[in-house]
Write a structure and sequence with these properties.
The chain is mostly helical. It has helices at residues 6-10, 16-22, 32-35, 38-48, 67-78. It is globular and about 30 Å long.
């Protein structure tokens, strides 16, 4: 299986509205350097993930990431944050 890359596989999952919405909060969803920091990536993952019966906090009002998209993000992290 080819390695998952930020540019090809992860960055396209973020819509332009998601990117522009998060920039004022200092969250650079489209920036590899920011997203490849494990603390930042984990924080973003937490906001994308449902918590019990509560929906994710990002993106606001959805559409929320599918389990397959969340799994892809986790695999990218496990693979070492490939650019």
């Amino acid at each position: 299986m080819p390695q998952i890359s930020f540019a090809t596989d992860i960055k396209p999952l973020f819509r332009a509205i998601d990117i522009s919405h998060m920039k004022p909060f200092g969250v650079e969803l489209d920036d590899y350097t920011y997203m490849s920091n494990p603390d930042n990536a984990n924080s973003v993952y937490e906001t994308l993930s449902p918590h019990g019966s509560e929906p994710p906090s990002m993106p606001p009002d959805g559409p929320y990431w599918t389990p397959a998209q969340l799994a892809l993000f986790v695999q990218w992290q496990k693979d070492g944050y490939q650019p």
